[in-house]
Amino acid sequence: MSHSFQFALILFGIMGFALFVRPIERSWITLPIFFAGLGFVLGPAGLGFIDLDLQDSTIHTVAEITLIFTLFLDASKIRLRNLKAHYGLPARMLLVGMPLTILLGTGLILLLAPDLPWAMALLTAAILTPTDAALAQPILADKDVPPRIAEAINVESGLNDGLALPVVVFAALLMANEATRDISLTPFGVSQFVGAQIIFGPLAGIVVGYCGAKLLDLATHHKFTQPIYEGIFFLSVGLAAFFGAETVGGNGFIAAFVAGLTFGNTKKTNHKFITEFLEGESNFLSILTFMIFGAVLAPVGLAHANWTTLLIAVSFLTLIRMAPIALSLVGKKLHLYERFILGWFGPKGLASILFALFVAEQYDMPHIDQMLACTVLTVGLSILAHGLSAKPLAHHFEKTMQKVKSQ
After folding, report:
1. Ranges for the Cation/H+ exchanger transmembrane domain (predicted)?
2. Quick check: helix, strand or coil at residue 51?
3. How far apart are CA 26 and CA 311, in angstroms?
4. Residue 62: helix, strand or coil by DSSP?
């Protein structure tokens, strides 16, 4: 099949979903379930209409752009001045729960697959740690769920992909170094390179994000710009941060995340159109990513899946996720059901897919098949488990809390 025909099929699927989105949303079918399933059916594991290769440059271009915009947009929504007053829950989940998840996950992977190098175990754990709020939309949108619970899930999801990225880069470089046995890349050399990426990336993000916000405020104040171009400017800031960081030796993805955080907390003018514009763009790119997951990544991962990778996947959705979150919430006045909701709704989705694609393209290393298998099984099970459980658990929330109050 030609590339044109394959992408035409993908676009027809997107058009169909857009036309019937309200009836679909009223059902048990979520956006990730629909498009990951459609991609799987159209891919080589199904009808075979889509036969894109994992190394196809188009796939990696879409994944790279999606990751840039996802990091930039998610970070731009976070208001640092509110973190201390209102975001105590996500702060605990990010600063305590997330490192514990990576450490516990690395240990479990080494226990279940002792033949894996520790760097690959760390890489896999870092890829599987970030959460995706898109799979928990029924929880976030349900009026029965307290705002602080919904906010905690949303803020954690917005920040943890950016925080996991340095660990992903560091572990991937260590694995690539071990594979090539390049004597010039000593552990010190790798650490030095990662250090440069982690230092120059944020610096580029701060400079570009701050200047971008100030320039947009100035142009808006003097009425030099128009709403439609605000969204274009916003996208350009994210891309400029990425390429600017890459130019000076920093990590572009970290720069995009920091630029979004800086931009969102620097701009004074309320640019409503930016949010509306970016939500549409972000949804479109997310749809393409879930289609790629179903059509391209899933068949490759499932081909290398086994009982060990399945056990790792189930553990990252249950024990490895829920135990660290429970520990991070010790001392907080929360009902057991609220703790369960915060622990359970750590769905794996967009960030894990994009990190796996990023690593598969950028680094030549052994054991990549096991990492892809773990990612595919974890994300696939999460799409189903969290997508199907979100609405019932959200509706059950009010009844549970009413019983507590009446006791």
Report:
1. 19-394
2. coil
3. 32
4. helix
3-22+29-406 CATH, one of 3.90.226.10, 1.20.1530.20, 3.40.190.10, 3.40.50.300: 1.20.1530.20
- Burial class from Cβ neighbours inside 10 Å (0-12, 13-18, 19+) for residue 164 reads buried
Nearest residue to 391 via CA among 33, 75, 3: 33
CA-wise closest residue to 259 among 223, 280, 277, 234: 234
Size (the chain), residues: 407
Q: Which pair of structure tokens corresponds to residue 91?
A: 């702060």
- Average of pLDDT values for 351-372? 86
Of 82-91, 154-163, 226-235, the poorest mean pLDDT is in: 82-91
Q: How far apart are CA 26 and CA 176, in angstroms?
A: 46
Q: What is the pLDDT of residues 217-242, one digit of tens each?
A: 898 888 888 877 887 888 899 999 99
Alpha carbon of 205 to those of 17, 72, 75, 240, 308: distances in Å? 35, 10, 11, 9, 39
* Model confidence pLDDT, tens digit, residues 87-108: 678 888 988 999 999 999 999 9
pLDDT higher than 60, residue 184: no
Sign of the dihedral defined by the CA atoms of residues 59, 62, 68, 73, in that order? negative
Integer Cα distance of 124 and 335 in angstroms: 32
Distance separating alpha carbons of residues 241 and 212, to the nearest angstrom: 10
List the helix and strand counts (H, then E) for the chain.
Answer: 20, 0
